[in-house]
Amino acid sequence: MAAKLIKGTEIREEILEEITADVAEIKEKHGVVPGLVTILVGESPASISYVTLKIKTAHRVGFNEIQDSQPDDLSEEALLGMIDKYNKDDSINGILVQLPLPKHIDEKKILNAIDPDKDVDGFHPVNVGRLMIGGDEVKFPPCTPAGIQEMIVRAGVETSGAEVVVVGRSNIVGKPIANMMFQKAAGANSTVTVVHTRTKDLAAHCLRADILIVAAGVPGLVKPEWIKPGACVIDVGVNRIGEKISEKTGKKIAILSGDVDFDAAKEIAGYITPVPGGVGPMTITMLMKNTLKSLKFKLGIA
Ligand code: NAD
């Protein structure tokens, strides 16, 4: 294998240790810890498993974590009321509403009701605007793109002047990571191209990339011949391509694949992220980082 593996599982441990140390120091000096509330409406098994992982991670780093689980038939008005309550609660630094919400609730309305200074997911239009302006304006970069940038930087990949090609233009991955990589900032200063379903020659664009970030949700979309030798390949895709029995638990689990033909790509790329164990673990990690930042902003020590 030619490529160096960028393991999200290892980087996650480094960052969570840094956060834990910071939380302990703030607790000692200021007598407070970050407060994070997770609102879950309904009982979707996928949402429950995400929320459980978020809570576990928040406890691990020493946050005060509140889980607010609500029934499926919770009204939009009641949810707006809860958000208003947490917006005003001084002990809460981050408000998380687990998506998707039941169909009778307008997701946009809910996300827009969160105080932008507690919007640790970074989805509020105010935070999207702050991200676009860049520099000191940025408060909470959205978690998956922030995780991607962190992995590139911690792997020691040069971003300044690099050709970055982003496959996908979603609001949660493609657009924000493209925006972050061209900013005049450390870990950025790249020349960015965004490609999508209407792009004429996907292969030609990908082949130019020093850093190729793929977030399409199409298993095996990026072929090895689309990769520039030595490039850094960040595979964001998480696709369920089948099921298997877990050796650990004996239960059925999903077989996951990325958007890149990993086995062939790893022989050409200089750096590559695996799926699973690559970008995946970074999202919750960066959520913790944003929540800590929120408290630091409040204390004036960010
Ligand atoms: P999305 O469906 O909202 O957007 C996909 C984008 O890819 C679209 O902009 C589309 O234009 C582009 N695209 C799709 N097929 C294409 C093709 N054949 N050629 C060129 N472009 C194409 O998806 P998303 O929410 O951005 O997620 C993308 C992938 O990343 C999914 O597999 C998702 O599960 C994964 N994801 C992982 C994490 C994580 O690991 N933490 C977080 C978010 C998303």
In short:
The chain is built from 10 helices and 11 strands.
Overview of this protein structure:
With 302 residues, this protein is of the alpha/beta class. 39% of the residues lie in helices and 18% in strands. The chain has helices at residues 8-30, 45-60, 76-88, 107-113, 125-133, 143-154, 174-181, 202-207, 262-265, 280-299; strands spanning 4-5, 35-41, 64-70, 94-97, 163-167, 191-195, 211-214, 232-235, 239-245, 252-257, 271-272. Helix 2 links the parallel strand 2 and strand 3. The longest helix has 23 residues, at 8-30. The mean pLDDT is 97. The structure holds nicotinamide-adenine-dinucleotide (NAD). Residues 144, 167-170, 172-174, 196-197, 202, 215-218, 221, 236-239, 279-280, 283 line the site of nicotinamide-adenine-dinucleotide. Nicotinamide-adenine-dinucleotide binds next to helix 10.
Secondary-structure blueprint of this entry?
Elements: E1 4-5, H1 8-30, E2 35-41, H2 45-60, E3 64-70, H3 76-88, E4 94-97, H4 107-113, H5 125-133, H6 143-154, E5 163-167, H7 174-181, E6 191-195, H8 202-207, E7 211-214, E8 232-235, E9 239-245, E10 252-257, H9 262-265, E11 271-272, H10 280-299
Parallel strand pairs: 1-11, 2-3, 2-4, 5-6, 5-7, 7-8, 8-11
Antiparallel strand pairs: 9-10
Nicotinamide-adenine-dinucleotide is lined by residues 144, 167-170, 172-174, 196-197, 202, 215-218, 221, 236-239, 279-280, 283.
Strand order of the largest sheet: 1-11-8-7-5-6
Spatial gap, N to C terminus: 41 Å
Reported for the largest beta sheet, the result is: 6 strands, parallel
Count all strands and give the number: 11
Helix content: 25-40%
Element pattern in H and E: EHEHEHEHHHEHEHEEEEHEH
Shape: globular
Mean pLDDT metric: 97
What small-molecule ligands were found? Answer: nicotinamide-adenine-dinucleotide
Low-confidence stretches: none
Helix and strand composition category: alpha/beta
Strand content: 15-25%
Specify Rg, calculated over alpha carbons.
20 Å
How many DSSP helices?
Answer: 10
